[in-house]
């Protein structure tokens, strides 16, 4: 029997910094380097050895983040759905990311037992977000994945009435 998540349950989510990227005339067009791709593949394999298996991978629209998300999916989670969202660009703001995360969590909770979600983004957004949501400072190098746990919103609460995504740090792959 599969037990679906209900409001008040804990949700696992993670945020990953894209792999090392080379130079380009336009920042949004920077592509992963060979070593950046190798680190992403290594970290994806390490992630697949954990209990965290994302059903959804959401990346920033920048090329390096989309390449990172695609490599993670190809390497370890071929059944994960892939989405792109501009809330995850380097200049994104906390509330935009929390809104995106809550929409994914609440949507997934209705049709699966474990809606683990992986976000692929950039610095300084990741470091700031992790610090604000967990109260912990984490070094976020290219390819780092930070795992967190948060409470589902309480019954009758909208995503903007929650604890603002406050999470506890559960693991780091670096």
UniProtKB/TrEMBL annotation:
This is Phosphohistidine phosphatase SixA. It comes from OM182 bacterium MED-G24. It comes from the Bacteria.
């Amino acid at each position: 029997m599969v037990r679906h998540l209900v409001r008040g349950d804990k949700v696992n989510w993670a945020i990953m910094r894209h792999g090392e990227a080379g130079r380009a005339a336009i920042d949004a067009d920077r592509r992963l380097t060979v070593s950046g791709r190798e680190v992403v593949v290594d970290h994806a394999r390490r992630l697949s050895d954990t209990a965290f298996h994302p059903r959804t991978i959401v990346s920033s629209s920048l090329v390096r983040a989309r390449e990172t998300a695609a490599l993670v999916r190809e390497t370890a989670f071929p059944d994960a759905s892939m989405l792109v969202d501009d809330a995850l660009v380097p200049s994104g703001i906390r509330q935009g990311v929390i809104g995106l995360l809550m929409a994914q969590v609440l949507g997934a909770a209705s049709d699966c037992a474990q809606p683990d979600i992986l976000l692929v983004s950039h610095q300084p957004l990741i470091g700031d977000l992790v610090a604000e949501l967990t109260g912990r400072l984490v070094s976020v190098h290219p390819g780092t994945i930070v795992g967190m746990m948060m409470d589902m919103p309480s019954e009758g609460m909208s995503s903007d009435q929650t604890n603002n995504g406050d999470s506890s740090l559960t693991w780091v792959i670096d």
